[in-house]
Amino acid sequence: MASPPPTSPPSLPSAGPAGVEPADAVPETSRREAPEAVWPHHGLLLLFTFLWGGNFVLAEVAVAEMAAISFSVARFVMGGLGLLVLLYAQCWADVRRNGSAFRLFPRVGGADWPRLLLVSVLGALLAPWLGIEGLNLTYAGRAAFWLALAPVMSAGIGYLLRTERITRLGAFGLVLAGLGALGLAVDGLAPGRGYWLGDLLLFAALVMAVAELHLIKPLASTYGATPMVALRTVIGGTLYVLVATPSLVQQPWLSLSGWTWVAIVAGGVVGVGIGQWVKVRALRAIRPTQVVLYGNMVPLATILIAWLTIGTPTSSLEIAAGLLIVIGAVCLQLGGAPPFEGEPPVA
Question: Is residue 300 within 8 Å of 314, Cβ to Cβ?
């Protein structure tokens, strides 16, 4: 279950925001940019929707062969390495373009460290740990079903934090998406399966991942997406490795199959590493619930990939629920709301 902006990507045009509005409004000329500058973020998020769906299937294959926490940490480390390479390349590009001094990580202000530590623990330790343990107690499609509830959770957290507000059309979209996710989850229920503990872990991981996405936004806006996600990954990943050390030492690494290594290496670098950067980078152009909405599409991608690769059948209820999710996503994309009155500008 996983969980995401650097060079000030532009924000949404005034005519086409999501059904959730950021509470921290900025002047119209700086906050609203051309639509063509926004849609590349949507395109990348759509691509990663299928990559994340494939990651669920690969993770299910991998945890059948190795300890869940060992797989999760190994994949997370690979994702961290991918992020560091990306950050290194970006820093050198900035040096050559601006003539600035090379700095791999930004100098974080003292007042921002508590938030950074909280984000690191939530997003890079607890969320992946609880998520992979929950998946191990259920299955890939069910884990993705829980992820589909992320927009509802994101809108609720954003409303409480006053980072977003919900319009009627946006609320209607959230209801549809929530009903669709519920339908998918109900379709996976059957007497005697005993998925309640796995569901509880997946739900807890979802709450932490969505909370992290909202909490990291001010840091990403101030210091840049790539350095913030990389620094958060290094801090939380170090703690994660320490927690998982006993399992990592006992794991027979040389006996793992090729597909498990694909899940670790490719899933880590692309899905966990670059994917997190894509999510957080998009926050400067589109709103948190819009970003999380692509997680709502992951169950559909997971079902499709699982059906094509391991023959998992798709029921009519799953198809109907998937349509509700897509329609709800469209409503959230098209809905708009005026900003709160008296909002301070974003730094």
Answer: no
For the stretch 25-63, pLDDT in tens is 433 334 444 545 778 888 888 888 888 888 888 888 899
Q: Are 142 and 303 in contact (CB under 8 A)?
A: no
Nearest to 212, CA basis, from 131, 299, 313: 131
**Residue 263 structural domain:** 48-95+110-334
Residue 339 gets the label, from left (phi > 0), alpha (psi -120 to 50) or beta, of beta
Is residue 197 domain-resident? yes
Closest to 328 (Cα-Cα) out of 121, 216, 102, 166: 166
**pLDDT bucket at 18, cuts 50 / 70 / 90:** very low
Domain count, the chain: 1
List Cα–Cα distances, 211 to 154, 234, 237, 251, 325, in angstroms.
Answer: 7, 19, 18, 32, 21
The answer to whether residues 206 and 147 touch, using CB atoms and an 8 Å cutoff, is yes
Hunting for tokens 């999760």 — which residue is that? 72
For the residues of 40-106, what is the DSSP string, one character each? HHHHHHHHHHHHHHHHHHHHHHHHTTS-HHHHHHHHHHHHHHHHHHHHHHHHHHHHHHH-PPP-SS-
Residue 67 lies in a domain: yes
Confirm whether 22 is domain-assigned.
no
Report d(CA 14, CA 175) in Å as an integer: 24
Token couple for 343: 């909002």
Whether the per-residue pLDDT at 325 is higher than 90: the answer is no
Residue 236 has pLDDT above 80, yes or no: yes
Q: What is the pLDDT, as a whole number, of residue 190?
A: 59
Does residue 105 lie within any of the structural domains?
Answer: no
